[in-house]
Amino acid sequence: MKLENLTWQLKLLIITEAEKEETLSAEQLTDDEPLFGPESRLMLDSLDALQICVALKEQFGVRLQGDREVRKHMMCVANLCDYVQQQINE
């Protein structure tokens, strides 16, 4: 899968699963902006993270487990894309 296509799919997945379509579009979401925390425009929370994890498993067969792993790989779209790409290639 092309990285640009995967990045786009992940942006859509994040916006849709977190129900942020009215706040921000996938086009507006940059690859390196924070998804969680006070600097985040999306202001995602733990429930959003759970929903995104479930969708990742369903759509890509990729599993994220444990708070530390979720925080590490969901800091931004670029990190998540790298992780998903790595898991798909294994």
UniProtKB/TrEMBL annotation:
Entry's SUPFAM superfamilies? Answer: ACP-like (SSF47336)
Which InterPro entries does its entry note? ACP-like_sf, PP-bd_ACP
Which Pfam families does this chain map to? Answer: PP-binding
Q: Which residues form the Carrier domain?
A: 5-88
Q: Which residues form a coiled coil?
A: none
Q: What is this protein called?
A: Acyl carrier protein
> Origin organism of this chain?
Frischella japonica
